[in-house]
Amino acid sequence: MRSKHVLTAALAATGIAFSTASAADEPNLKETRTALQQWVELRQLISEEENNWRAEKETLEESIRLIKSEMERLDNEMKEIDERSTAAEKERAELNERNAELKKAARAVTDAIESLEQAIISMHDRLPEKLQNDIEVLYQRIPKGGIATRASTGERLQNIVGILSQVEKFNRTITLTSEIQELPDGTSAQVDTIYLGLAVGYFVDGTNKFAGILTPGPNGWTSTVSNDLAPQIRKAIQVYKNEALAEFVPLPVSIN
Which residue from 60, 102, 119, 237 lies 20 to 30 Å from 185 (Cα-Cα)? Predict the structure, then answer.
Protein backbone atom coordinates (compact mmCIF):
# COMPACT_ATOMS: atom_id res chain seq x y z
CA MET A 1 0.00 0.00 0.00
CA ARG A 2 2.81 2.33 0.85
CA SER A 3 4.35 1.82 -2.60
CA LYS A 4 1.08 2.59 -4.27
CA HIS A 5 0.78 5.87 -2.46
CA VAL A 6 4.36 6.77 -3.29
CA LEU A 7 3.78 6.11 -7.00
CA THR A 8 0.62 8.13 -6.92
CA ALA A 9 2.42 10.98 -5.26
CA ALA A 10 5.24 10.75 -7.69
CA LEU A 11 2.89 10.85 -10.66
CA ALA A 12 1.08 13.73 -9.13
CA ALA A 13 4.31 15.55 -8.57
CA THR A 14 5.35 14.81 -12.10
CA GLY A 15 2.06 16.11 -13.41
CA ILE A 16 2.51 19.23 -11.38
CA ALA A 17 5.99 19.56 -12.76
CA PHE A 18 4.77 19.17 -16.37
CA SER A 19 2.00 21.59 -15.76
CA THR A 20 4.43 24.03 -14.29
CA ALA A 21 6.85 23.60 -17.21
CA SER A 22 4.13 24.00 -19.85
CA ALA A 23 2.85 27.09 -18.24
CA ALA A 24 6.36 28.52 -18.15
CA ASP A 25 7.13 27.70 -21.89
CA GLU A 26 3.85 29.00 -23.31
CA PRO A 27 5.16 32.57 -24.09
CA ASN A 28 8.21 31.13 -25.89
CA LEU A 29 5.99 28.96 -28.06
CA LYS A 30 3.88 31.94 -29.12
CA GLU A 31 6.97 33.91 -29.99
CA THR A 32 8.26 30.98 -31.97
CA ARG A 33 5.00 30.66 -33.85
CA THR A 34 4.98 34.40 -34.51
CA ALA A 35 8.58 34.33 -35.71
CA LEU A 36 7.83 31.31 -37.87
CA GLN A 37 4.83 33.05 -39.39
CA GLN A 38 6.89 36.17 -40.04
CA TRP A 39 9.60 34.03 -41.62
CA VAL A 40 7.05 32.39 -43.90
CA GLU A 41 5.63 35.78 -44.84
CA LEU A 42 9.15 37.05 -45.49
CA ARG A 43 9.90 34.04 -47.70
CA GLN A 44 6.65 34.67 -49.57
CA LEU A 45 7.56 38.34 -49.95
CA ILE A 46 11.03 37.40 -51.16
CA SER A 47 9.51 34.89 -53.57
CA GLU A 48 7.07 37.51 -54.85
CA GLU A 49 9.88 40.02 -55.22
CA GLU A 50 11.95 37.44 -57.06
CA ASN A 51 9.01 36.68 -59.36
CA ASN A 52 8.40 40.39 -59.89
CA TRP A 53 12.09 40.93 -60.58
CA ARG A 54 12.13 38.08 -63.08
CA ALA A 55 9.11 39.60 -64.85
CA GLU A 56 10.64 43.07 -64.74
CA LYS A 57 13.96 41.63 -65.90
CA GLU A 58 12.27 39.97 -68.86
CA THR A 59 10.45 43.21 -69.62
CA LEU A 60 13.68 45.18 -69.34
CA GLU A 61 15.54 42.68 -71.50
CA GLU A 62 12.76 42.82 -74.10
CA SER A 63 12.85 46.63 -73.94
CA ILE A 64 16.61 46.54 -74.37
CA ARG A 65 16.26 44.23 -77.36
CA LEU A 66 13.65 46.52 -78.88
CA ILE A 67 15.80 49.58 -78.24
CA LYS A 68 18.83 47.87 -79.79
CA SER A 69 16.73 46.82 -82.78
CA GLU A 70 15.39 50.35 -83.16
CA MET A 71 18.91 51.77 -82.87
CA GLU A 72 20.12 49.39 -85.58
CA ARG A 73 17.18 50.38 -87.77
CA LEU A 74 17.90 54.06 -87.20
CA ASP A 75 21.60 53.51 -87.91
CA ASN A 76 20.71 51.81 -91.18
CA GLU A 77 18.30 54.60 -92.07
CA MET A 78 20.93 57.20 -91.27
CA LYS A 79 23.41 55.37 -93.49
CA GLU A 80 20.84 55.24 -96.28
CA ILE A 81 20.07 58.94 -95.78
CA ASP A 82 23.78 59.74 -95.88
CA GLU A 83 24.16 57.68 -99.05
CA ARG A 84 21.11 59.32 -100.60
CA SER A 85 22.39 62.71 -99.47
CA THR A 86 25.74 62.03 -101.10
CA ALA A 87 23.99 60.87 -104.27
CA ALA A 88 21.65 63.88 -104.14
CA GLU A 89 24.56 66.27 -103.66
CA LYS A 90 26.35 64.68 -106.61
CA GLU A 91 23.19 64.88 -108.71
CA ARG A 92 22.65 68.49 -107.57
CA ALA A 93 26.21 69.36 -108.56
CA GLU A 94 25.69 67.72 -111.95
CA LEU A 95 22.40 69.57 -112.40
CA ASN A 96 24.00 72.87 -111.44
CA GLU A 97 26.79 72.24 -113.92
CA ARG A 98 24.26 71.30 -116.60
CA ASN A 99 22.20 74.37 -115.75
CA ALA A 100 25.26 76.58 -116.12
CA GLU A 101 25.97 75.02 -119.51
CA LEU A 102 22.37 75.55 -120.61
CA LYS A 103 22.45 79.17 -119.46
CA LYS A 104 25.67 79.69 -121.39
CA ALA A 105 24.15 78.09 -124.48
CA ALA A 106 20.95 80.12 -124.03
CA ARG A 107 23.01 83.31 -123.78
CA ALA A 108 24.80 82.40 -127.02
CA VAL A 109 21.45 81.76 -128.72
CA THR A 110 20.05 85.04 -127.37
CA ASP A 111 23.11 86.93 -128.63
CA ALA A 112 22.71 85.32 -132.06
CA ILE A 113 19.00 86.21 -132.13
CA GLU A 114 19.70 89.82 -131.16
CA SER A 115 22.34 90.01 -133.90
CA LEU A 116 19.87 88.68 -136.49
CA GLU A 117 17.18 91.07 -135.31
CA GLN A 118 19.54 94.01 -135.70
CA ALA A 119 20.48 92.80 -139.18
CA ILE A 120 16.80 92.66 -140.16
CA ILE A 121 16.21 96.15 -138.76
CA SER A 122 19.19 97.43 -140.75
CA MET A 123 18.04 95.89 -144.02
CA HIS A 124 14.35 96.74 -143.61
CA ASP A 125 14.56 100.13 -145.32
CA ARG A 126 16.49 98.55 -148.21
CA LEU A 127 13.65 96.15 -149.01
CA PRO A 128 11.06 96.92 -151.70
CA GLU A 129 7.88 98.50 -150.41
CA LYS A 130 5.89 95.42 -151.40
CA LEU A 131 8.12 93.18 -149.31
CA GLN A 132 8.09 95.63 -146.40
CA ASN A 133 4.31 95.44 -146.37
CA ASP A 134 4.40 91.63 -146.50
CA ILE A 135 6.60 91.34 -143.40
CA GLU A 136 5.22 94.34 -141.49
CA VAL A 137 3.40 92.30 -138.83
CA LEU A 138 6.47 90.17 -138.14
CA TYR A 139 8.77 93.19 -138.27
CA GLN A 140 6.77 95.00 -135.58
CA ARG A 141 7.38 92.10 -133.19
CA ILE A 142 11.13 92.74 -133.17
CA PRO A 143 12.20 94.57 -129.98
CA LYS A 144 13.75 97.92 -130.89
CA GLY A 145 15.70 100.59 -129.07
CA GLY A 146 16.75 98.32 -126.20
CA ILE A 147 13.13 97.86 -125.12
CA ALA A 148 12.65 94.57 -123.25
CA THR A 149 10.38 92.00 -124.79
CA ARG A 150 8.15 89.39 -123.22
CA ALA A 151 8.58 87.11 -126.21
CA SER A 152 10.46 83.90 -125.51
CA THR A 153 13.66 82.96 -127.30
CA GLY A 154 11.71 80.43 -129.35
CA GLU A 155 9.11 83.01 -130.37
CA ARG A 156 11.77 85.51 -131.39
CA LEU A 157 13.61 82.89 -133.40
CA GLN A 158 10.39 81.83 -135.11
CA ASN A 159 9.69 85.47 -135.95
CA ILE A 160 13.15 85.85 -137.52
CA VAL A 161 12.69 82.66 -139.53
CA GLY A 162 9.33 83.97 -140.75
CA ILE A 163 10.85 87.25 -141.96
CA LEU A 164 13.86 85.64 -143.61
CA SER A 165 11.61 83.08 -145.31
CA GLN A 166 9.53 85.90 -146.82
CA VAL A 167 12.66 87.74 -147.94
CA GLU A 168 14.13 84.58 -149.48
CA LYS A 169 10.87 83.78 -151.24
CA PHE A 170 10.72 87.31 -152.68
CA ASN A 171 14.34 87.09 -153.80
CA ARG A 172 13.81 83.82 -155.70
CA THR A 173 10.67 84.83 -157.60
CA ILE A 174 9.32 87.45 -159.97
CA THR A 175 6.85 89.71 -158.20
CA LEU A 176 4.28 91.93 -159.89
CA THR A 177 2.66 94.65 -157.84
CA SER A 178 1.03 98.06 -158.11
CA GLU A 179 2.83 101.04 -156.58
CA ILE A 180 2.84 104.83 -156.55
CA GLN A 181 5.79 106.51 -158.25
CA GLU A 182 6.65 110.18 -158.27
CA LEU A 183 6.71 111.79 -161.73
CA PRO A 184 9.44 114.22 -162.84
CA ASP A 185 7.00 117.10 -162.52
CA GLY A 186 6.46 116.34 -158.84
CA THR A 187 3.13 114.63 -159.24
CA SER A 188 2.51 110.94 -158.55
CA ALA A 189 1.16 108.15 -160.69
CA GLN A 190 0.12 104.58 -160.11
CA VAL A 191 2.43 102.18 -161.91
CA ASP A 192 2.80 98.45 -162.45
CA THR A 193 6.09 97.26 -161.02
CA ILE A 194 7.77 93.95 -161.71
CA TYR A 195 10.64 92.86 -159.44
CA LEU A 196 13.22 90.29 -160.45
CA GLY A 197 13.96 89.10 -156.95
CA LEU A 198 15.88 91.70 -154.99
CA ALA A 199 18.16 92.52 -157.91
CA VAL A 200 16.15 95.00 -159.94
CA GLY A 201 12.66 96.31 -160.59
CA TYR A 202 10.90 97.90 -163.56
CA PHE A 203 7.82 100.08 -163.56
CA VAL A 204 5.46 101.52 -166.18
CA ASP A 205 2.25 103.51 -165.85
CA GLY A 206 -1.10 102.76 -167.44
CA THR A 207 -0.41 105.02 -170.41
CA ASN A 208 2.83 103.17 -171.19
CA LYS A 209 4.57 106.55 -171.40
CA PHE A 210 6.12 106.83 -167.94
CA ALA A 211 8.59 104.08 -167.08
CA GLY A 212 11.80 103.48 -165.24
CA ILE A 213 14.16 101.19 -163.37
CA LEU A 214 14.35 100.47 -159.61
CA THR A 215 17.70 99.56 -158.09
CA PRO A 216 18.49 98.66 -154.47
CA GLY A 217 20.86 100.80 -152.44
CA PRO A 218 22.00 101.33 -148.85
CA ASN A 219 19.20 103.83 -148.26
CA GLY A 220 16.45 101.96 -150.08
CA TRP A 221 15.41 101.54 -153.69
CA THR A 222 16.17 104.31 -156.15
CA SER A 223 14.04 104.96 -159.21
CA THR A 224 15.55 106.09 -162.49
CA VAL A 225 13.14 107.33 -165.12
CA SER A 226 13.61 105.62 -168.50
CA ASN A 227 10.48 106.30 -170.52
CA ASP A 228 12.02 104.67 -173.59
CA LEU A 229 11.81 101.32 -171.78
CA ALA A 230 8.03 101.56 -171.40
CA PRO A 231 7.20 99.17 -174.33
CA GLN A 232 9.66 96.48 -173.18
CA ILE A 233 8.54 96.70 -169.55
CA ARG A 234 4.88 96.48 -170.54
CA LYS A 235 5.70 93.51 -172.77
CA ALA A 236 7.51 91.74 -169.94
CA ILE A 237 4.51 92.28 -167.67
CA GLN A 238 2.12 90.88 -170.29
CA VAL A 239 4.29 87.78 -170.74
CA TYR A 240 4.41 87.28 -166.97
CA LYS A 241 0.61 87.57 -166.77
CA ASN A 242 0.19 85.19 -169.73
CA GLU A 243 -1.42 87.98 -171.72
CA ALA A 244 1.20 87.58 -174.48
CA LEU A 245 3.23 84.77 -175.97
CA ALA A 246 6.46 84.06 -174.18
CA GLU A 247 9.43 85.72 -175.77
CA PHE A 248 12.77 87.17 -174.82
CA VAL A 249 12.36 90.77 -173.64
CA PRO A 250 15.67 92.66 -173.32
CA LEU A 251 15.84 94.92 -170.27
CA PRO A 252 18.90 96.63 -168.78
CA VAL A 253 20.29 95.29 -165.52
CA SER A 254 22.75 97.15 -163.35
CA ILE A 255 24.84 94.97 -161.03
CA ASN A 256 26.44 96.69 -158.07
Answer: 237
